[in-house]
Amino acid sequence: MHIVKVTYTVKAGYAAKNQENISKVMSDLRKINHPGIRYSTYLGEDGNTFMHLALFEQKDFQQILFDLETFKSFQQELKNGNLEVPPKTEIMTLVDSCFDIF
After folding, report:
1. Which long-range contacts (CB under 8 A, 24 or more apart) does 15-24 make?
2. What pLDDT does residue 6 have?
3. Would you say residue 42 lies in a domain?
4. Which residue in 69, 71, 83, 98 has the fewest CB atoms around it within 10 Å?
5. What is the pLDDT of residue 39?
6. Residue 43's CATH number
7. Could you tell me what percentage of the chain is helix, strand and coil, using 3-state DSSP and rounding each to the nearest 5?
């Protein structure tokens, strides 16, 4: 399993647009309905800090996400000056879970 956590903060006023972009990515992932991908996003209480948690049954499944046009667009818009705090990426290891992930 490959687990990726990404945290970043967008500039004030961009959070709503970022949420729209994330929703487009999620819509595409739902359409694909790949059984080896679990991806969720969260908004911090400051209203501008986002945390993405992606779980891939196999590391190479991450490329499916990277190949989505909506994901490429989402990333490009962030890079176009909408970040206040740049992304911090962490590779995580599952210790345990009360449910089956895959």
Report:
1. 15/43, 15/47, 15/48, 17/77, 17/82, 18/50, 18/74, 18/77, 18/78, 18/82, 19/43, 21/70, 21/73, 21/74, 21/77, 22/50, 22/74, 24/70, 24/73, 24/74
2. 98
3. yes
4. 98
5. 98
6. 3.30.70.100
7. 35, 35, 30
Which has the closest alpha carbon to 52: 62, 69, 67? Answer: 62
pTM exceeds 0.85 for this model:
yes
User: What are the tokens at 59?
Assistant: 């590391």
CA dist 24 and 27 (Å) reads 5
Name residues of the chain where pLDDT drops below 70. Answer: none
Q: Could you count the other beta carbons within 10 Å of the beta carbon of residue 82? A: 17
Is residue 20 helix, strand or coil? helix
pLDDT at res. 53? 98
Number of domains the chain is built from: 1
Give the domain extent around 36. Answer: 2-92
